[in-house]
Amino acid sequence: MFEFKIKKSAKDSLARTGVFNTPHGKIKTPVFMPVGTKATVKTLSQKDLEKLDAEIILANTYHLFLRPGEALIKKMGGLHKWMNWNGPMLTDSGGYQVFSLAQNKEFSKNTNFKTTVKIDQNGVKFKSHLDGSNHYITPEKAIQIQHDLGADIIMAFDECAPADSSKEYFKKAMGITHSWLSRCKKEHEKLSKKHPASKQALFGIVQGGTYKDLRIESAKFVNEQNLPGNAIGGLAIGEGKKTMYKMVENVIPHLDLNRPRYLMGVGTPEDLLECVDRGVDMFDCVHPTRMSRHGAFFTKTGRFNIKNEQFKFDKNPLEKGCDCETCKNHSRSYLRHLIFENEISGLRLMTIHNVHFLLNLMNEIRVNLEQNTFKKFKNNFLKKFKHKDD
Amino acid sequence: MFEFKIKKSAKDSLARTGVFNTPHGKIKTPVFMPVGTKATVKTLSQKDLEKLDAEIILANTYHLFLRPGEALIKKMGGLHKWMNWNGPMLTDSGGYQVFSLAQNKEFSKNTNFKTTVKIDQNGVKFKSHLDGSNHYITPEKAIQIQHDLGADIIMAFDECAPADSSKEYFKKAMGITHSWLSRCKKEHEKLSKKHPASKQALFGIVQGGTYKDLRIESAKFVNEQNLPGNAIGGLAIGEGKKTMYKMVENVIPHLDLNRPRYLMGVGTPEDLLECVDRGVDMFDCVHPTRMSRHGAFFTKTGRFNIKNEQFKFDKNPLEKGCDCETCKNHSRSYLRHLIFENEISGLRLMTIHNVHFLLNLMNEIRVNLEQNTFKKFKNNFLKKFKHKDD
């Protein structure tokens, strides 16, 4: 179980295709994982995800811990049974959400909850963004919750320092993240021995902000834990694309070739191509599903917004030649109307197209890697794909 | 075109099965028509409606007239092409919405639009509930809009008097409705001659409040117009079920046997059974789709709300044995979570079940009518179906 087989490595790039084995099936890499925050990929049913050929989906520990609580999900047979999703799943540790949602000043202003987050060596004390209730999560607790949820891949509990922190703070946060990783590993081993039927793979997370030396130190430490996969966290939070790519370049050489590398929270078409090229195997991002609900959509020539006046009388599908359910059935003109009216059917149809676009892009990436044409494919794609504001 | 063939008439009831021919296919009656207010049945795609075997769907003239406007829809090839719905369609005339939405005091309070509605013999002046803009709709205009929209069945423009009006007012409103019906008919004939390719059937609407003599007078007048179908309007607005059934009983004998009878705005399971029994062939109602979005669902033992604590750990589908997509795939426990989190996927899954429930009920009604077991089926159903508050 959790064997990672590299199928094909590019000669002119760090990119590779592979297969990661999980108790719920094989994941073809490189892979984009749609995010199902509250045990549902927003607007889609699990039938939709099957039709979209999603290899694996995510759920968020923070949200499910607060509501409905991991005890309910455990009682219902775990996430897979409860959701009726029979493919592979991954849960994050809740670390990122504790530090982002609970620290969200904008949110705090709207709700009058004081969303203080207090970190010590042992864990994190925070208030729920839903009702201000007090919670305390330790690395052990994060693993216990994820064992109750029962996803195939679970993540270590890490401290995600704010992007504007000092190097000193990043170093301290990295130290905490490393000590928490050791505790997560220990707790995971303990629980796995206790329940040998439950098969889950724990991934560690590299931190260190935008500091090369910290990132390398962290990559080495995480890699040494010999877990089934290694993740890179704390990027895609405003450091800029070039810096993000640079950090990936710094980290990748220190993560074993024969284990999957997961870049957390990254998922625009250009980032997927650039980071596959740099040796990343797994990605997730809420952006593609979130942007769908605001009317934005991907095409091979860039990103557009359906609300734009130019689409008012447009009888074309979102993208000509696209074989998603949305493009096979509906025009831009009709979808524009649905989005303007905030019709739920429209939000779903836009999401179907954008998730299809990204999963199809990953498929094309894999096919081109197999055929030794990845670099050419990447360059052609990026030449045509003009990122536009929406 | 627009031929109505009665297949089977019950011996112990006014109920019958039939087939109504339209340019977009045959409608098996008795039929329940899901409402697609803004050219979409809320939460569902047209693919979903196909899978649900919807015989015909509705769209609302008032909403589409205000946004995006009938000119856009005409330019896009009409409602069918624009929505990509290839089955039969019906548009209402906008009459009901002008008098209900534009007169909505609750709405007026929230928006500060003075939603005055001024009726004269010629037409209705009203302010849009969206932006307070001024509009004037005459019977001719209502028909012109519906010709631009292009549904198979279109409705006459009528005055829907508030339920608490005096008999004198109902009589006056009925007189206006009758004179408008003559004008609608004339305009429809004029436009149909001008565009012989456009094939649409105009239905007249019986009004008269809860006054037997007015209802009979109105039924006679409407029936004499010899239109392809007759509708009963202005009920289901708070007069109570018994009164509503009584009014249907008063009207039906005066509407020709060999033309379909459409009871507007009625669609609970018990009302469908009672009014089929009284000779009604067509129904529509927003309630089943609206209640879905509030977590309510139908079962053969009555109506429940998924938010109820009793469903928290319930691994059963909404209804055992139901073969809708929702029941085949998801438990009450999971759906309860989705509805509590206001997840869009949950709103759609609840809608799929409730629309399936009603369409399946209509199918069972038709089958039992064919087999001469309708009365027995109706009595058994109503004995088990306990309407519960949600």
Describe the protein:
The structure is a homodimer of 390-residue chains. Chain A is of the alpha/beta class. In chain A, the strands form four sheets. An eight-stranded parallel beta sheet of chain A has the order 4-14-13-12-11-10-6-5. A three-stranded antiparallel beta sheet of chain A has the order 1-2-3. A three-stranded antiparallel beta sheet of chain A has the order 7-8-9. The first copy, chain A, folds into two domains: 4-92 and 139-284, Queuine tRNA-ribosyltransferase-like (TIM Barrel, Alpha-Beta Barrel); 292-384, no CATH class. In chain A, helix 9 (212-224) links the parallel strand 11 and strand 12 (229-232). Chain A has helices at 46-51, 61-66, 70-75, 79-83, 95-100, 105-111, 139-149, 167-194, 212-224, 241-251, 269-277, 287-292, 325-329, 332-340, 344-370, 374-384, and strands spanning 4-9, 16-22, 25-29, 31-33, 57-59, 89-91, 117-119, 124-127, 134-137, 153-155, 201-206, 229-232, 261-263, 282-284, 296-299, 302-305. In chain A, helix 15 (344-370) packs antiparallel against helix 16. Chain A is globular. Helix content of chain A is 43%, strand content 17%. Chains A and B meet through helix 14 and helix 15 of A and helix 14 and helix 15 of B.
